[in-house]
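Changelog note: in this version the structure field was regenerated for every chain. One regenerated record is shown below for reference.
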Amino acid sequence: MEHADHQPGRQAAQRPGPHVAQRPGQHPDRRPGQPADHVAQIQAEWRRERPDLDVSPQAVIGRLHRLAARLTAELTLVYQRYGLGEGEFDVLAALRRAGAPYERAPGELAAHTMVTTGAMTKRIDRLERAGLVTRRPAEDDRRGRVVALTDAGRRLIDEAFTAHMRNEHRLLAHLAPEEAAALQTLLAAWQDRLDGAGPEPSPRPGRP
């Protein structure tokens, strides 16, 4: 979140009121003369090159893409302090929140973390070598396997998750509480509607 300039002898610049016309591609909170952000620059270039297209969705989706990349980079810094990648952290977290005895089937872990079973097997292999999880036969199906946290794995994920939540609070503190609440509502509604609609078939090249 941007903050006003509080240098001695200088008054914080006021944001232009709603009566001030905005140039195409200009962010509504950006002062005249201030450089446009990356997404606004891309939009301005596309408006110049393809004035026949409405590129307004880029203002939302483009910024979400860039924000997601930035947040992932910020979050993985904490995981790395505990010797974990994002995938390993997700597996340990899924096991920990399952409750005692902190175990799940590999397929269930794959569904919780939205990866293929093959990718999940590789993650479990790495965690097992590190002594953070164990595998054992499932009691109700001897052909199946169950993955469980070890004591060391539970201690590690408890410490890592505590640091992770501190980090998420730090990142969200750039928004006011009411802004964060409004964003949560919007994102939840958008995700629910997209999930309900399902994917739209892509048009074939050369067809409208």
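Spot check on this record: The longest helix spans residues 58-81. The helical segments are 38-49, 58-81, 86-96, 106-113, 117-129, 151-172, 177-197.
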